[in-house]
Specification:
Elements (H helix, E strand, L loop, with lengths): L2 H7 L2 H13 L4 H10 L4 H21 L10 H6 L3 H13 L4 E5 L5 H8 L3 E6 L2 H13 L6 E5 L12 E4 L2 E2 L13 E2 L2 H10 L3 E5 L13 E7 L2 E8 L8 E8 L5 E8 L13 E5 L1 H5 L3 H8 L2 E2 L7 E3 L8 E11 L2 H11 L1 E8 L6 H8 L5 E10 L2 E8 L2
Parallel strand pairs: 1-2, 1-4, 2-3, 4-7, 8-10, 16-17
Antiparallel strand pairs: 5-6, 7-9, 8-9, 10-11, 12-14, 12-15, 13-14, 15-18, 17-18
Helix pairs in contact: 1-4, 1-8, 2-3, 2-4, 3-4, 6-7
Bound molecules: S-adenosylmethionine.
S-adenosylmethionine binds next to helix 7 and strand 2.
Length: 397
């Protein structure tokens, strides 16, 4: 998509081409393109409309019903905040009294649109002309033109001090192997991003979930967010927006599209007690692990670690929690392929779910080596207990 093709799709001919494309799309792309051309749609417009219809279809997972009227680029859709996550953030900003917001690097506008829906006036910029054009098209498509102004500009040129709050979701090139954080991979540059809280105390930064806790500005809140068990982002809430040192936010989007949320908060510095394994094992949600709130979860469920370095918790009685998957342990054995194979054969296990933390074993290779067979299902956890490689066989969940 180019800025020109987005403009073309917004003309009356473009709207008609999009309608025809959504009727035709779904099968063979070449056949769809010639069917559109047969209806008198010029080739360039036909290609743009078919691409857009395909992107809208993919975007439903992030944007729900709004996707049908929005505009996307492939990269913009990939980087966009899911609407449920952007909506939560916007509600929190509005509740904190934010009325005007600068969105620096707005992408196709997910966060800006969510803020506007909470009544916040947004000045959104993106350095990429094509992306800025798409963001502007989305503002118009969702009828939020009174609240959002989009400009193609470099974030570093914005007079951020004019706004109640600033939001930045910098673009990142993929860091090389083993490198968790590379400031050079950020655009706008990390130095600019990191200095924002000094210029505008109410700053929110959206960052990759692997971000180092040491990069949190003093006094800021670090929030890690998961959606349906997938870790999706970290957010640093700075200045007066910080409410707690660390927060894990778990969002569940049910099939009926109702959204539920659970939050765990704490210091991120506490240590969980360490003891023996137990009858129940808890595999914490990745947001809990990344926000360093395993000790808080341990306290909540009366649990313990069996290895100080590994984030599996254990209890002797079953405790319900939304913050972890619970498994019922049937056998604990020092890891040995031979013993494990014999045990699984004895139990008639043909279907095995394998989880691991602190084990270098490759689950798929192990599955082959175990030569499974039988009518039963089970879960296997590969981990360490007091430093020793250990296998825990659990009832299937
Ligand atoms: C991760 S995306 C933002 C996604 C957005 N929050 C959303 O949900 O749609 C980052 C955006 O920053 C833009 N960007 C990168 N460097 C920039 C700069 N110096 N000034 C303005 N925008 C920039 C990129 O073009 C990209 O669209």
């Amino acid at each position: 998509m180019t800025a020109e093709s987005t403009a073309l799709l917004r003309t009356p001919e473009g709207v008609t081409a999009l309608e025809s494309a959504s009727e035709i799309a779904g099968g063979d792309p070449l056949a769809a393109a010639s069917a559109l051309r047969a209806r008198g749609v010029p080739p360039e417009l036909a290609a743009a409309a078919l691409t857009q219809v395909d992107l809208r279809r993919r975007a439903v997972a992030k944007f729900g019903a709004d996707a049908a009227s929005m505009f996307f680029t492939r990269a913009g859709l990939e980087q966009a905040t899911r609407a449920v996550v952007a909506g939560r953030r916007a509600r929190r900003l509005a509740a904190a009294g934010v009325r005007t917001l600068a969105d620096l690097g707005c992408g196709l506008g997910s966060d800006a649109l969510a803020a506007a829906r909470e009544g916040i006036s947004v000045y959104a910029v993106d350095a990429d002309p094509e992306t800025a054009a798409v963001a502007a098209a989305n503002v118009a498509a969702l009828g939020l033109g009174d609240l959002v102004t989009v400009e193609c500009a470099d974030a570093t040129s914005v007079e951020v001090e004019r706004y109640d709050a600033v939001f930045a979701d910098p673009a990142r090139r993929k860091a090389g192997r083993g490198r968790v954080f590379d400031p050079r991979s950020y655009s706008p540059p990390w130095d600019f991003i990191a200095a924002l809280p000094e210029r505008v105390p109410r700053t929110v930064l959206k960052l990759a979930p692997g971000i180092d806790h040491d990069l949190l500005p003093p006094g800021a809140e670090g929030e890690w967010v998961s959606v349906d068990g997938d870790l999706v982002e970290a957010a640093f809430w700075c200045g007066p927006l910080a409410e707690v040192p660390r927060r894990a936010s778990l969002i569940q989007v049910s099939r009926e599209k109702s959204v539920k949320g659970e939050q765990l908060t704490g210091t991120g510095a506490a240590k969980a007690p360490v003891g023996p394994t137990g009858a129940f094992l808890y595999d914490p949600d990745p947001a809990v692990v990344r926000s360093h709130l395993v000790a808080e979860l341990a306290e909540l469920i009366g649990g313990r670690l069996a290895d100080p370095e590994i984030a599996y918790l254990y209890t002797d009685v079953a405790v319900g929690t939304p913050f972890a998957r619970r498994l019922e342990v049937t056998d604990v054995l020092p890891f040995s392929l031979k013993r494990l194979r014999a045990l699984l054969r004895e139990r008639g296990v043909g279907r095995l779910e394998i989880r691991k933390r602190g084990s270098a074993l490759e689950p798929e290779q192990l599955r082959k080596d175990l030569r499974l067979g039988g009518p039963n299902a089970a879960s296997l956890v590969l981990t360490r207990v007091s430093g020793a490689p250990t296998a825990l066989l659990c009832k299937a969940i």
